[in-house]
Amino acid sequence: MGSASGWRRVRVERGIYLLPNGRYYVCARRAGRLRARTVGPDLPLARSARAALVASVEAGLEPASPRLRLDTVAGWWLERFEAKVATGERHPRTLESHRYHLEHHLLPALAPRRLSALTVDDVAAWLAELRAKGCSAKTTAGALATLHSILRYALRHGWIALDPIERLEPDERPRPARRHQRVLGRGEIERLLAACPPRDQLMVATALYTGLRISELLGLIWDDVDFAAGLVHVRAQLSRAHRGEPARRVAPKTAASVRDVPLVAQLSRLLAAHKLATPFAAGTDWVFTTSCGTPCGHRNVARRCLTRAAKLAGLNDDGWPPLRFHDLRHVFASHLIVDLGLDVAQVSRILGHASPTITLDVYTHLFDDARHAREIRERMADSRFAALLDCGSVAAIGSAGA
Length: 402
Prior knowledge:
9 strands; 4-stranded antiparallel beta sheet; elongated
């Protein structure tokens, strides 16, 4: 058998080695990857442990790298994701979301954990901690999606044998409730615009009358505004700035987001006047800028502009959640559906949804309400009740009353 001198391990038999400290090292291979573990100083126990390891490896239940930490694998996964963003396979906004959840929710809680030792109970406890800290169901679901992506990456490479997220009970998973869609009335729109600082009024009006997402709105340059054709060409969106990485124009998240949005004449005149007044009126200049000509930041605009204006206008009273830029998109969608009577395909194209199915899923109630109202008006017009309002009938009723 030889001497277990120095640091060298000594082969006892196939897959079993004696270590200098008197313990046994057992190992097995699968698909060229080595799986191993250390057991006690008893050889029969080592033989049993090796047999169990072989069975586990053959069943695909033994991770290839049981000592890998979550932060190590997360770093490799992030590098791979960044490379995909660089080649256009994945979207920068998705990368921003994953980075946020890594920095704020995953690494602070789970960084030193061995990935192969992470259990379904560990994941459930982590989700419970996020909820206890006040994280919303949407935020918790986003953090879980990032962890799930990392674990699928590890599973693919054989670094873990099982994905614990797959074993979560339904009630342990975050289930974000769909936020109630808020549509402002004419009076509320007037109050909101009046409460906006003068420099922000046109930005809010453009969001209301084009339905652009905030990233699309802030990413507009003057070349995108086609005054002659009466269109806004949505060709890009503004990324979020990070340390050492300023905001920039990036491709929209989906192909359907590249679209032309009708530019109502009244808004066109306001934008044209703004272009004449601003010192940043070149084709590649931002439509909505800071005083230095740089693009406005998402969070700064939302807080300084919309949140403050909505509060001053009293739009967050009566139990309503704070007004968001996305609510202005719902206002525009309501106008298209209820006021103009456009069909789902037309609305889907203007809003830039990936498919009409999404439009129906989000705005079914508006389409139903509009159709229901039209049907009621048509049936009332054909009724004998409504016929009483014909000119002759009104005269007859008037004379009868006299």
